Amino acid sequence: DGYNVAVVGATGAVGTKLIEMLEQTNLPLKNVKLLASQRSAGRKLLFKGAGIFVEELTADSFDDVDIAFFSAGGSTSQKFASEAVNRGVVVIDNTSQFRMDKDTPLVVPEVNKETLKQHQGIIANPNCSTIQMMVALKPIKELAGIDRIIASTYQAVSGAGARAVEEVKQQSREILDGELTENLTTEILPVASDKKHYPLAFNALAQIDEFAEEDYTKEEWKMVNETKKIMEDSQIKVSATCVRVPVITSHSESIYIETIEQTSVDQIRDSLEKAPGIVVEDDPSQQVYPQALNSVGKKETFVGRIRQDLDIEDGYHLWVVSDNLLKGAAWNSVQIAETLHEMDLVRV
Ligand code: A2P
Question: To which CATH superfamily is domain 3-126+329-342 assigned?
């Protein structure tokens, strides 16, 4: 008999994709509960063609639930995840709230599913930019070790939520209609909680999340700290620049690595082609390389432009693209649930 699952934040950008991924999962499901704020209570959403009413999230929502997927912001997770765990629920959390907690596994199933065995009720889904980078770098780490990573991201707006997507679409319409850039509606991006807002349409903003230590943003720190935790390597050198671009879905990343042992482009390509969850698209002679638009709706991480650095012998460059709402969020979460089921770790 199947699991009762709940989606917290079911009306949001990630929640919507969680519902789609649950429609496709081979996880045995009994009941699906859709939770959001009071604003959405009573709305009807479709699951496998049948209407399900959205309910307002309260602590009691978790009675009878086995697995809950949280994607309604860090404060909602902070408030309700432990309520759920106290009721025997396994929480798979999409926010950054618990990612760096010592007792919380931070999981990309292709990379470190063994850490699920240590879970104490909450499992954290890493940051979207970190997930696709980990998928691409794991085989290279196994091949030759990695000493250093420098990542520059080109991140899609849907990572900032459904309202941010609407904001960029509206700005784009206003610009095409001849509106001056200083008159554009700017209320959310780059970061809803920050003081200033700038247009993203026809622009690129080198700020994702708020600024923090050393003038790096929190998003950049997430890539640094989460990489060290997932790779179980506190010594690995990681640095990142995270940029929001006016792409609706799929993050692209330019990743530079330095390997510990000597290897080659051919060996790297070969290891990537054999790795789970990766599609290599790399044929410059045919202009073949990963594109954000082509990866939308796909669960895999796409890797191309694999080449050696021109000056550094053990330096390599990669272009890594994946759907930020799927592998970066909803699919990775449902894949964690499937893996918990396979490892018999749901009801413990
Ligand atoms: P609602 O649609 O009712 O506001 P996104 O990441 O696209 O912005 O979506 C955020 C999701 O989190 C939405 O489903 C939203 O529900 C939900 N949410 C936001 N705040 C709360 C809250 N305090 N309690 C429950 N759900 C919330």
Answer: NAD(P)-binding Rossmann-like Domain (3.40.50.720)
